[in-house]
Amino acid sequence: MKNFADRLIEVIQEKGSPIAVGLDPQLQYLPQEIKDKAFKDHGQGFKGASRAILEFNRKVLDVVSPYTGVVKLQVAFYELLGPWGMEAYRKTITYAQKKGLVTIGDIKRGDVEHTALAYAQAHLGEVKLDKITLRGYGTDSVTLNPYLGGDSIAPFLKVAEEKAKGLFILVKTTNPSSRDFQDLSASDGERFFEKVAKKVRQWGRGLIGKNGYSSVGAVVGAQYPRTANRLRRLIPRAFFLVPGYGAQGAGARGLDAYFNADGYGAIISSSRSIIFAYLYPPWKGRGVLQYAPTDWEEAVRQAVVKMHSEVAEAAERAKRRSSSRRL
Amino acid sequence: MKNFADRLIEVIQEKGSPIAVGLDPQLQYLPQEIKDKAFKDHGQGFKGASRAILEFNRKVLDVVSPYTGVVKLQVAFYELLGPWGMEAYRKTITYAQKKGLVTIGDIKRGDVEHTALAYAQAHLGEVKLDKITLRGYGTDSVTLNPYLGGDSIAPFLKVAEEKAKGLFILVKTTNPSSRDFQDLSASDGERFFEKVAKKVRQWGRGLIGKNGYSSVGAVVGAQYPRTANRLRRLIPRAFFLVPGYGAQGAGARGLDAYFNADGYGAIISSSRSIIFAYLYPPWKGRGVLQYAPTDWEEAVRQAVVKMHSEVAEAAERAKRRSSSRRL
Question: B39-51, pLDDT tens digit by residue?
Fold first, then answer.
């Protein structure tokens, strides 16, 4: 089994850009054609809705897989549709993995040790029943909330080690209220999220791959290049999962701060502005609806191509900046 | 619709003790008879396992409902069994509510605003599909992780207000590593969990019921009576959800610190030491297996009766202590 961070680097090299496409399939934004068919075949309820998002996800994956090596699934939009939604979650993960993609389950779980173990087994590991053992959701990695501290992370570390999986610990999130607690200063002047970052370093020590990166990464929002710069030095071996590019407001400027001098160390993630590109004016546009609903896949393709090149350039800038420094 | 905190007080009065029984159905501890039947009828996989825990839960609820007004479901043990597990989660909630019990979904979710809204709709509210709107899991209240700050709580507050539901925000958790971050001192000397508590007070202001308690409560572990005492004064209107009594080590001593002078303001929760009482030496015993597996329901009954009286006494002590102070 290959170390998770090494696998990340492998797919980044293969696809040529360190991006992740987020599969956050909010039903109201799905192309009507897909919904109509699914609701006709499977009823107007959760089953029909779940089949619609599964069908949508498969089509999105068909379009984006030449450009991205990583997909992130926000589990809330599946959990929203009850057990059927979780079935769509499971099947989307399987479909993505068959295409060779690395999956991130954006679950943000965090609980006391024996409960955390149940979550770890469910999402990354295996589930032991009475007579048989089954694979759980089988994602390659998950996001975790650190509020409960080390023993809430330990079961995930154990499963990550056994199954060569990855973890991304929330450090500094994209939302404005992340300042409420994450930005508080501790008595020694360090900010709370820096305390978390130091623990991320400690938790990740045992899971370093051959490229020098750990399977324990950190979630750091795309809006904070200066913070990213500081965190980059604090936890150089952690892969940053960087949401907030695109619909959440951050552009490509400043993204180079998230990368190390080798051009690695960050995965830039975008969800709505890729998968629902047909509803968004492309990037800096001004409210002009550019795509017909039937062209939604072409809109996805153009959005992911644009993101692919912008993010690849940011990673290149990080390399150039550092080599010019060396001169 | 009755305010959630008022409903809590109503069921506490009705049952005579402020307790919650935790339905954390870990498959390996279930009575073999229940498992054998479910696996025979529904196969050896997730469906059979999920039917086993549903059947177990129903029997537990039949036994405990004369003694407790509240049940807490740890969603991880359902999520562990995939979509079938979530179906057992949903059906357990419905069954408990039919018995007049108030349900707490111990989900510990926390995410950015539009994602938090999906979780809030899924667990407390309604889910709008294309042509119809369905009830989600329909729990009466949930636990939430505060790490992402105010805008991650806001959608839950909105749904809680619309649907008269309750929230319990993690403040100080039972696990030893809760000290990693929750106990850190901020630059002004306050501890991190106190910062969270102050936000809980602020978030709960708009949801105060006729008894003076808010529908926004706090999770405070049973091991910290001194902390509870301080928090009690800091957020007097918050209901404390207090796990850790029983299997997690805390006894009934010190529990009075969690209550206000009116004898309300806390729900003491116990899971494994009630539902799997047949495996535990009763409370202070020393490793003697006292019950045959076929007597598991009687073991549950005796455990919940004991807890009912110990916790009722603690609430009474809080009242007496305060009236003697007044003299």
Answer: 999 999 999 999 9
State the residue range of the domain holding A65: 4-326
User: How many separate domains does chain A show?
Assistant: 1
A108 is a catalytic site residue: yes
A-B CB pairs within 8 A amount to 220
- B235 alpha carbon, distance to own chain's centre: 19
Task: Decide: residue A5, CB within 10 A, 0-12 exposed, 13-18 middle, 19+ buried.
Answer: buried
Nearest chain B residue (CA) to A116: B76
| pLDDT tens digits for range B136-164 | 999 999 999 999 999 999 999 999 999 99
A115–B76 CB contact, under 8 Å = yes
Beta bridge partners of A72: A22, A104
Which candidate in B59, B108, B158, B163 is catalytic? B108
| Residues in CB range of A267: below 8 A, 6 or more apart | A8, A12, A18, A19, A20, A70, A239, A240, A241, A242
For A244, nearest residue in chain B (alpha carbons): B112
Q: Which of B241, B297, B300, B249 is nearest to B269 (CA)?
A: B241
CATH of residue A299's domain is 3.20.20.70
Q: Is B125 on the interface with A (CB under 8 A)?
A: no
Encoding tokens for residue A320? 């150039």
